[in-house]
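Q: What structure does this chain adopt?
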Amino acid sequence: MLVKTIGLIGKPEDCVTDTLLTLHDFLVARDYKVFVESRFISLIKDIKLQSCELSELGERCDLAITIGGDGTLLTAARTLAAHDVPLVGVNMGRLGFLVDISSTEILTKLEQILSGAFVAEERFLLEAKIYRSDRLVREQFALNEVVIQRWATTGMVEFDTFINGVYLNSQRSDGLIVSTPTGSTAYALSGGGPILYPSLNAIVLVPINPHTLSNRPIVVDGNSQVEIAFTQKNPISTQVSCDDILISGIEKTDRISIEKATKTVKILHPAGYDFFEILRAKLNWSGGYH
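A:
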């Protein structure tokens, strides 16, 4: 992997800004060209940095480093996926399944990655499309999950689910989580869904508080098209979220289509990366029985 230009991405916070400046100086000293996400510039005084908007980093950079939590990496992944820019995640103390370089070992691990000692993973995105009267009115990408859920109402959502045009089931619930393997350790996990190994070509559907308790999570092939059609007669108050992007104004005649996007996200982990070790650490699984 030939890297000449690196982008630094994160939320403009004091702890993130200090880490960003440390990384900036570290990279510049090694003759890398560095662009800083423009939101930081107002917080950094008397320092001349090259900056650009997040949307421009994909065109300028060979590698992007996110500083923060999983949410920061999710935002960067959706934006940069179209440009095939690999991502490295630095964890600033939050529960992170995707950002696996701790703040105490940033420079050591980054040095290893830049020298070619890394594990590369391809993670697929979901693309959600909302159709109204057979006309596409909105589309959005998600690395974790697409969620259809009730909003500002006490009533349940009623809808039919189809897989590749074949009827799966009808349900009344608070909604449905359609998750990638990456998102299986996020909202889908809290809803009772299974943990999927990141490289699996699979999509998991997890109902949210279903009226019928026999309505259980189901895993389908990753190349499947999932379609949702609302069946209730009364007006609905429903929203769709793609990771942290909220889409409101959903109408009961809308049809929602969800399938794998054509672009993937490449995440670079330090050498020795072990998904099961991360599960043990993040979920407090015992490792003392062997």
